[in-house]
Amino acid sequence: MPAVTMEKHKDGDFFVDYEDKVFEDVKAEEGQKALVTFHTVAFEGSIGLVNILNAIRLNRKGYETSILLYGPGVTLGIQRGFPTLGDAAFPGHQNFADNLKKFMSEGGKVYACRFALQALYGHGEPSLLEGIIPIAPQDVLDLKLIHVRDNAVIVDTWTL
């Protein structure tokens, strides 16, 4: 058996050159929009959190950015906590809420489908995080069509 003679990794070590950026840092041109859609269940994978972070980044690049929560995606925008709402029962428990609030505080808009909220997940509008705008199920398609018409950047997120 070969002996491992390398020194153990320590906190603060680098594994990759994270400063070597290959592509230009794209910024939005005046009036450009972005839409990030979520059809994913909270806590079922990383894509919900990753694309909220992408929406924050798009917003900071100057895009007029919106998030659409529909289908199971509405579960990203509901209040949660234990033992009371807002409490973190475990590290990362409030990641969705914290980052959606950050996104909205920086000017982003978040929309949630009322049909999915009530019919699919048994929640009402009072369950939504402060600032999330509830919309009719017919608005889900129209919101996307508006962004297509306006040549927006669209990031669609689906998980099954």
List keywords for this structure.
single chain, 160 residues, alpha/beta, Hypothetical Protein Ychn, Chain: A, 4 helices, DsrEFH-like, MSMEG_0572 family protein, MSMEG0572
Structural topology:
Elements: E1 33-39, H1 47-60, E2 64-69, H2 95-105, E3 109-113, H3 114-120, E4 133-135, H4 137-149, E5 153-158
Parallel strand pairs: 1-2, 1-5, 2-3, 3-4
Describe this structure in words.
This protein has 160 residues and is an alpha/beta fold. The protein has a single domain, classed as Hypothetical Protein Ychn, Chain: A (3-Layer(aba) Sandwich). The chain has 4 helices and 5 strands; from the N terminus they run βαβαβαβαβ. Strand 3, helix 3 and strand 4 form a beta-alpha-beta unit. Helix 1 packs parallel to helix 2. The termini are far apart. The model has no long low-confidence stretch (mean pLDDT 94).
